[in-house]
Amino acid sequence: MTSVDGGSAPYYGLKALAQNSAIFVAPDGLNKGWANQGGEDITFIDTIRQQIDNDLCVNEKQRFALGFSYGGAMSFSLACSKAKDFRAVAVLSGATLSGCNGGNDPIAYYGQHGVRDSVLPISMGRDLVNRFIKNNGCQNTQLREPARNSNQRVTTVVQGCKPEYPVQWTAFDGDHVALPGRNNGNDAGPNSFTPEEVWKFFTALQ
Questions:
Q1: How far is CA 47 from CA 15, 40, 44, 59, 69, in A?
Q2: CA distance 55 to 47
C-alpha cells in the first residue's frame, strides 16, 4: 500500500516493475493525513485489507506497505502494530508521526532518507530503522551516510538479522524527496534508484 500514487512514477515506480504481478492500493489517510489518532488509520487499513482479502485472490503472506513522508510514517506504524499481517515495509523519509503501537515484533524493513532533509531530519529516519535492527535480531550497526553535497548515496545491508527479517538502509545526499536521482538528491521520478531497490527488497522475500 502507498499513501499517494507517486505522480510521474505511479506507486513510486513499483507498478511498472511489477508487470501485473501485484495488486496495488493507494488509500488517502483519514482527515487528509495519517495522524492515526486513536488508531483510526490502522483500523481503516485493516478494513481495506479485509475487503481486498475477501474480494480478490491474495497471497496473505506477501503483503507490503510503502510510503513517503506522512505515508512513510504510516508504513512505520503498520510495522509496529501489524507486523504479523505484513511481510515488509519500505519507509521513505519517514518519522514517528503516526504513532507506534507495540513495535516489538520483527518485520523486514527498508528505510531510505536524505542527509539534507529539511522537513524530517535524517535522525528521525535513523531512529525508525534502529528499532527494527533490534527487533529483527540484527547486529548493532553504525548506519553509514554520505557527506553533504557529495551527490552520493550509501546503502547499508544490516548483518546478522534473522534470515526472514532483513534490514536495509539507504542514505542519500538530498532533501525531502521520495524518488531521488541515482547521482544526486533531486526528484528523478521513474529514473530514481528507489523503485528498483524497493522492488528487489520486496521480491526477495518469500
A1: 23, 11, 5, 17, 23
A2: 12
Give which of 20, 38, 41 is closest to 30, Cα–Cα. Answer: 41
Q: Strand order in 167-172's β-sheet?
A: 64-68, 88-92, 108-114, 167-172, 153-157
Helices (H), 118-193: 122-135
Give the length of the chain. Answer: 206
Number of structural domains found in the chain? 1
pTM over 0.85: yes
Q: Whole domain around residue 166: which residue ranges?
A: 11-204
**Residue 4: inside a domain:** no
The one-digit pLDDT tens for each residue of the chain (206 residues) are 443 444 568 899 999 999 999 999 999 999 989 999 999 999 999 999 999 999 999 999 999 999 999 999 999 999 999 999 999 999 999 999 999 999 999 999 999 999 999 999 999 999 999 999 999 999 999 999 999 999 999 999 999 999 999 999 999 999 999 999 998 889 999 999 999 999 999 999 97
- Amino acid letter, 9: A
Please report, for the domain that includes residue 43, its CATH number: 3.40.50.1820
Q: Is the dihedral of CA 106, 92, 28, 87 positive or negative?
A: negative
Tell me whether strands 108-114 and 88-92 are parallel, antiparallel or unpaired.
Answer: parallel
User: Residue 151: which of 96, 193, 203, 121 has the closest Cα?
Assistant: 193
Give the SS3 label for residue 10: helix
